[in-house]
Amino acid sequence: MTDAIRPLIAGNWKMNGLKAAAAEFDAMLNGAAEVAGKADLLVCPPATLIAAFADKAHGKKVAVGAQDCHPKASGAHTGDIAAEMLADAGATAIIVGHSERRADHGESDALIRQKAEAVWRAGAVAIVCIGETQAQRDAGQTLDIVRGQLNGSLPDGSTAANLVVAYEPVWAIGTGLTPTSEDVEQIHGFIRELLTSRFKADGVAMRILYGGSVKPSNAAELMAVKNVNGALVGGASLKAADFLAIAKGCP
Ligand code: 13P
């Protein structure tokens, strides 16, 4: 049944991209129709570029998203951006709980859950990231960490339409290392069991993305793994050719 889930290839540009990056985004828009049969495409540029990219993407086959939001809709929170503001700029999905935010900003599961609810309040889709560190993996804690983060970060009311899970082992991010297909199958299968037991039919249909050093050369193998419903791509999403090649690798 999960085989029927349409893959999502999401690019997380992180803190990369000036106005001149619009040319690369144009190349993604131009190539998108060719891969539209394979996967939905989403690009999450830095917040400064969302409005301009969303204007360009209007009516095209690439959606525009954001990388984080504040849980509140407005208020005295200098430097923060509300989900409503991101949606107003054109973001239709917002990543929350990325491991870089968990590490750099000490974000807790409880805060991430609030952020996911803020994303819904703004009418967007929450992409909630989870994943173990190298030390946790070495200690044999991977499944415990995944279970704890899922339980703590996903709000009640999560559905296949309003929430996407991204499993990103921290040790695989930006390192060129990836888990084996067997490891990915085991962990995604475990995530699917937990989602199904908590969210029933929605858990069966919810997308589970893999993230961490996805590139054109390994995308087809990773995307073919059971319960992998797309990818959250960092570095390789900055180049249109690589990003589109990853989407082409979807089964
Ligand atoms: P890389 O693809 O650069 O490893 O980054 C993965 C990631 O963190 C996406 O959110």
From TrEMBL:
<dbReference type="InterPro" id="IPR035990">
    <property type="entry name" value="TIM_sf"/>
</dbReference>
<feature type="active site" description="Proton acceptor">
    <location>
        <position position="168"/>
    </location>
</feature>
<dbReference type="InterPro" id="IPR022896">
    <property type="entry name" value="TrioseP_Isoase_bac/euk"/>
</dbReference>
<dbReference type="GO" id="GO:0006094">
    <property type="term" value="P:gluconeogenesis"/>
</dbReference>
<dbReference type="InterPro" id="IPR020861">
    <property type="entry name" value="Triosephosphate_isomerase_AS"/>
</dbReference>
<comment type="subunit">
    <text>Homodimer.</text>
</comment>
<keyword id="KW-0413">Isomerase</keyword>
<dbReference type="GO" id="GO:0019563">
    <property type="term" value="P:glycerol catabolic process"/>
</dbReference>
<feature type="binding site">
    <location>
        <begin position="12"/>
        <end position="14"/>
    </location>
    <ligand>
        <name>substrate</name>
    </ligand>
</feature>
<dbReference type="GO" id="GO:0005829">
    <property type="term" value="C:cytosol"/>
</dbReference>
<comment type="function">
    <text>Involved in the gluconeogenesis. Catalyzes stereospecifically the conversion of dihydroxyacetone phosphate (DHAP) to D-glyceraldehyde-3-phosphate (G3P).</text>
</comment>
<comment type="similarity">
    <text>Belongs to the triosephosphate isomerase family.</text>
</comment>
<dbReference type="Pfam" id="PF00121">
    <property type="entry name" value="TIM"/>
</dbReference>
<keyword id="KW-0963">Cytoplasm</keyword>
<dbReference type="InterPro" id="IPR000652">
    <property type="entry name" value="Triosephosphate_isomerase"/>
</dbReference>
<feature type="binding site">
    <location>
        <begin position="234"/>
        <end position="235"/>
    </location>
    <ligand>
        <name>substrate</name>
    </ligand>
</feature>
<feature type="binding site">
    <location>
        <position position="213"/>
    </location>
    <ligand>
        <name>substrate</name>
    </ligand>
</feature>
<dbReference type="GO" id="GO:0004807">
    <property type="term" value="F:triose-phosphate isomerase activity"/>
</dbReference>
<keyword id="KW-0312">Gluconeogenesis</keyword>
<keyword id="KW-0324">Glycolysis</keyword>
<comment type="pathway">
    <text>Carbohydrate biosynthesis; gluconeogenesis.</text>
</comment>
<dbReference type="GO" id="GO:0046166">
    <property type="term" value="P:glyceraldehyde-3-phosphate biosynthetic process"/>
</dbReference>
<feature type="active site" description="Electrophile">
    <location>
        <position position="98"/>
    </location>
</feature>
<dbReference type="InterPro" id="IPR013785">
    <property type="entry name" value="Aldolase_TIM"/>
</dbReference>
<comment type="pathway">
    <text>Carbohydrate degradation; glycolysis; D-glyceraldehyde 3-phosphate from glycerone phosphate: step 1/1.</text>
</comment>
<protein>
    <recommendedName>
        <fullName>Triosephosphate isomerase</fullName>
        <ecNumber>5.3.1.1</ecNumber>
    </recommendedName>
</protein>
<feature type="binding site">
    <location>
        <position position="174"/>
    </location>
    <ligand>
        <name>substrate</name>
    </ligand>
</feature>
<dbReference type="GO" id="GO:0006096">
    <property type="term" value="P:glycolytic process"/>
</dbReference>
